[in-house]
C-alpha cells in the first residue's frame, strides 16, 4: 500500500479514520499533560496511575458483568484516582520518598489487578474473553463514541489549562513560593493530577496499562529538547504525541499483525531519540560539535596568547620569530598556525612568524574581553 | 517608578536603625516538629518594623523552618504568627519570600523575566494574566538587581549569583512591607553579595522589614542592625550592637566562639 492510497483510506475507511483520530487525540492530550508530569519530576506517576487502574477495570467487570468500555473506564478512573491519592498520602504522611510510594502502589495495584483478571478468566462467563486487551491495548476496538469522549476530555483539559495557565506554571516551578502568594496549591495540584489520570484512563483501551506511561513521557521529553519556553514545550509535546498516534496507526495498519499500542510508543520513542541527538541547543550532536569547536578556539587562543607573550618583549611587535620557538608550546599545531595566518593575525616568512597589528591587538584583548562577556 | 527614584537618592547607611517601635512580625509559642522531634521549640519572637535582621544558628537549628512556618508553608504543632497584628493569611500582600536558590529546578523552561513576573501573580489573583503594568514592574525590578540585560535568558544559563538576583527581583516586584529571605548569600560571589546587601539596605531605608537567614557570622555586624540567635530554641533577639557577643554565640553554637566585632 503506498502513502497516497493510505491517506485516501484514512479519510474514507470508517474504522481506520476512527482509530487514527482516536490515537492522534490521545497522543495530543497525553503529550500536553505529560509535559506537566515531566516538569514536576513525576515521570513515574503515569506508570503508577495506569497500573493502578487495572483492578478498577476488573472490579467494574465483576460488578456489572458487562464489557461496556465506558463502564470499565469509570472503574479504571476510580481505582486510578485511589492509587494516586494513596501515593500522595504515603509521601505526605510517612517519610518514604515519592519513588518508593510510586513503585509500591504500582506493583500492589497491578498485582491485585492481575489476580482479579486470572480469577475472571476462570469464570464460566463467556463474556470475559478480551479483558486482557487492557494490558497492551487494542486500538482496533475504538469506536466513534470513544473518540468523542477523548475529544471532549481533551477540550475540557485545554480550557482548564488555558484558564489556569499562570497557576500551573508557577506551581510547577516553585510550589512553596506559590503557596506564600496565597494560591491554593492543593487545588492546582489536584486539578493537574486529575487530568493526568483522566488522560491515562482514556488511553488504556488503545495503548494499555503497561505502555501507557510512555505516551505521557516520550512526547514531553522530546519537546523539552527543542525549546526553553513552557508554552512551546506543551504545544510541541501535543504535536509529537498526535503524530506518534497517526504514524503508529499507519504503520500498524499497513503491516499485518502489528499491535497498534506498542507501535505508537515506538514511534514516540523515535521522536525522543531524534530530539536527543539533533536538537540544536540541547542535542548530543550539536553539543559535541560545540565542544570540539570550543576546544579548537581555545587552542587557537592559547597559541595566540603565547605569541603575544613573546612579541611583547620586543618594541616592534611584528619582529619575526622562529617557528621552532612554538614547538615547545603545548597546544600548538601546524594547523592552528595556518588558521592564525588565515585570520590575518600572523604573517609567515619562511621559518619565521610575526604577529600582525590586528593579531597583537586581538591577543591583548583576548582575556579581558572574555571576562566582560561573562558578566 | 517614584519609589525607585527615592530609594536611589538615599545614601546607604546602617548606623541608624529605622525602627519605629511598631511590631511587624510577632511569633507566639511556635513549636514545629518533624516526626516527634522538635525542630523549633516554643519560639517567642517580636520583629520591629524597619529592621534588617539576621537569623543565625548552626545547621539544623531551624532557621529555614522558622521562616517557612511564619509563611504558612509548614504547619506548626503549636503557636501563632501575626503580621502587623493580624493572621498571616489576611496579610499576604504585605509579605514577600525569597526561597533558597536550590529549592527549585533551574532547568525549568522559562526566562529570567518570566520568573520575576511570577512575583506579580499574588496581587493578580486567580486566572488573571499579567499585562503591561506587571511587565513594566518586573523589568524595573530586573534593572534594580542589575539583570536587565539577561531578561530573555533561559534561567539555567544564568550563574548562581545571577539566579539569586532573579529570585530577589521576584520578591522586589511584590512590593511588600516585609521580606523573608532564606540564605540569599549562599554560593554567590563578592560582587553579588555586595549588590544584594545594598538592595537590602535600600529596602530598610524605605521602611521595609527584612529578615534574612544568614550563615556568615563575620558579616553580621556590617550588614545587619538586628539579630536573632536560634538553635531550636530562641537564644536571643535584639539590636546587633547590644546582643551580638561571644556569650550569645557560644550559647547558640555550643562552642567557645570568639568573634571580633568591627566597630
UniProtKB/TrEMBL annotation, chain A:
GO biological process: cellular response to iron ion; response to zinc ion; transmembrane transport
GO cellular component: ATP-binding cassette (ABC) transporter complex
Membrane topology: Multi-pass membrane protein
Transmembrane region(s): 21-39, 45-64, 71-89, 101-120, 147-165, 190-218, 230-251, 263-286
Annotated InterPro entries: ABC_BtuC-like, ABC_TroCD
Keywords assigned: Cell membrane, Membrane, Transmembrane, Transmembrane helix, Transport
Keyword hit for Cell membrane: yes
Domain of life: Bacteria
UniProt subcellular location: Cell membrane
CDD domains: TM_ABC_iron-siderophores_like
Gene3D superfamilies: ABC transporter involved in vitamin B12 uptake, BtuC (1.10.3470.10)
Family label: Belongs to the ABC-3 integral membrane protein family.
Protein name in UniProt: Manganese/zinc/iron transport system permease protein
Native source organism of the sequence: Winogradskyella pacifica
Amino acid at each position: 500500500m503506498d502513502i497516497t492510497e493510505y491517506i485516501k483510506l484514512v479519510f474514507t475507511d470508517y474504522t481506520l479514520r476512527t482509530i487514527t483520530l482516536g490515537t492522534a487525540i490521545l497522543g495530543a492530550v497525553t503529550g500536553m499533560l505529560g509535559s506537566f508530569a515531566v516538569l514536576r519530576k513525576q515521570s513515574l506517576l503515569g506508570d503508577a496511575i495506569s497500573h493502578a487502574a487495572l483492578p478498577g477495570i476488573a472490579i467494574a467487570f465483576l460488578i456489572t458483568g458487562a464489557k461496556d468500555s465506558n463502564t470499565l473506564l469509570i472503574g479504571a478512573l476510580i481505582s486510578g484516582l485511589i492509587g494516586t491519592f494513596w501515593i500522595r498520602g504515603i509521601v505526605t504522611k510517612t517519610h518514604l520518598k515519592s519513588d518508593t510510594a510510586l513503585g509500591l502502589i504500582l506493583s500492589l495495584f497491578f498485582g491485585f489487578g492481575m489476580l482479579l483478571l486470572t480469577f475472571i478468566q476462570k469464570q464460566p462467563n463467556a463474556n470475559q474473553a478480551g479483558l486482557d486487551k487492557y494490558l497492551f491495548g487494542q486500538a482496533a476496538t475504538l469506536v466513534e463514541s470513544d473518540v468523542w469522549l477523548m475529544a471532549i476530555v481533551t477540550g475540557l483539559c485545554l480550557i482548564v489549562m488555558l484558564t489556569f495557565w499562570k497557576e500551573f506554571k508557577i506551581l510547577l516551578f516553585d510550589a512553596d513560593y506559590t503557596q506564600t502568594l496565597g494560591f491554593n496549591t492543593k487545588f492546582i495540584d489536584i486539578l493537574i493530577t486529575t487530568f493526568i489520570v483522566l488522560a491515562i484512563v482514556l488511553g488504556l483501551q488503545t495503548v494499555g496499562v503497561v505502555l501507557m506511561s510512555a505516551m505521557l513521557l516520550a512526547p514531553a521529553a522530546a519537546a523539552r529538547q527543542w525549546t526553553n519556553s513552557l508554552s512551546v514545550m506543551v504545544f510541541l509535546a501535543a504535536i509529537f504525541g498526535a503524530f506518534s498516534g497517526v504514524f503508529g496507526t499507519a504503520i500498524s495498519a499497513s503491516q499485518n499483525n502489528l499491535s497498534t499500542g506498542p507501535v505508537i510508543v515506538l514511534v514516540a520513542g523515535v521522536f525522543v531519540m531524534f530530539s536527543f541527538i539533533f536538537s540544536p541547543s540541547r542535542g548530543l550532536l550539536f553539543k559535541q560539535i560545540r565542544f570540539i569547536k570550543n576546544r579548537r578556539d581555545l587552542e587557537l587562543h592559547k597559541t595566540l596568547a603565547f605569541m603575544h607573550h613573546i612579541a611583547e618583549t620586543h618594541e616592534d611587535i611584528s619582529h619575526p620569530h622562529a617557528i621552532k620557538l612554538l614547538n615547545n608550546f603545548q597546544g600548538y599545531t601546524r594547523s592552528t598556525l595556518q588558521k592564525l595566518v588565515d585570520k590575518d593575525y600572523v604573517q609567515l616568512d619562511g621559518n619565521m612568524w610575526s604577529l600582525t597589528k590586528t593579531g597583537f591587538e586581538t591577543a591583548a584583548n583576548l582575556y579581558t574581553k572574555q571576562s566582560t562577556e561573562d558578566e | 517608578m517614584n519609589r525607585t527614584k527615592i530609594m536611589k537618592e538615599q545614601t546607604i547607611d546602617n548606623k541608624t536603625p529605622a525602627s519605629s517601635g511598631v511590631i511587624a512580625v510577632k511569633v507566639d509559642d511556635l513549636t514545629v516538629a518533624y516526626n516527634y522531634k522538635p525542630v523549633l521549640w516554643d519560639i517567642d519572637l517580636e520583629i520591629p518594623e524597619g529592621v534588617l535582621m539576621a537569623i543565625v544558628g548552626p545547621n539544623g537549628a531551624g532557621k529555614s523552618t522558622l521562616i517557612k512556618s511564619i509563611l504558612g508553608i509548614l504547619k506548626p504543632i503549636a503557636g501563632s504568627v501575626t503580621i502587623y497584628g493580624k493572621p498571616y493569611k489576611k496579610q499576604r500582600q504585605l509579605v514577600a519570600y525569597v526561597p533558597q536558590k536550590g529549592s527549585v529546578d533551574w532547568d525549568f523552561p522559562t526566562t529570567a523575566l518570566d520568573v520575576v513576573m511570577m512575583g506579580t501573580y499574588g496581587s493578580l489573583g486567580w486566572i488573571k494574566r499579567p499585562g503591561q503594568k506587571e511587565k513594566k514592574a518586573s523589568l524595573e525590578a530586573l534593572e534594580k538587581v542589575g539583570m536587565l540585560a539577561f531578561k530573555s535568558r533561559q534561567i539555567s544559563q544564568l550563574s548562581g549569583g545571577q539566579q539569586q538576583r532573579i529570585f530577589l527581583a521576584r520578591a522586589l516586584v511584590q512590593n511588600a512591607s516585609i521580606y523573608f529571605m532564606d540564605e540569599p548569600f549562599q554560593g554567590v560571589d563578592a560582587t553579588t553579595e555586595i549588590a544584594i546587601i545594598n538592595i537590602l539596605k535600600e529596602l530598610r531605608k524605605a521602611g521595609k522589614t527584612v529578615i534574612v537567614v544568614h550563615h556568615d557570622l563575620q558579616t553580621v555586624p556590617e550588614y545587619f542592625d538586628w539579630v536573632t540567635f536560634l538553635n531550636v530554641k530562641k537564644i536571643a533577639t535584639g539590636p546587633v550592637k547590644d546582643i551580638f557577643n561571644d556569650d550569645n554565640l557560644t550559647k547558640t553554637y555550643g562552642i567557645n566562639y570568639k568573634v571580633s566585632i568591627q566597630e
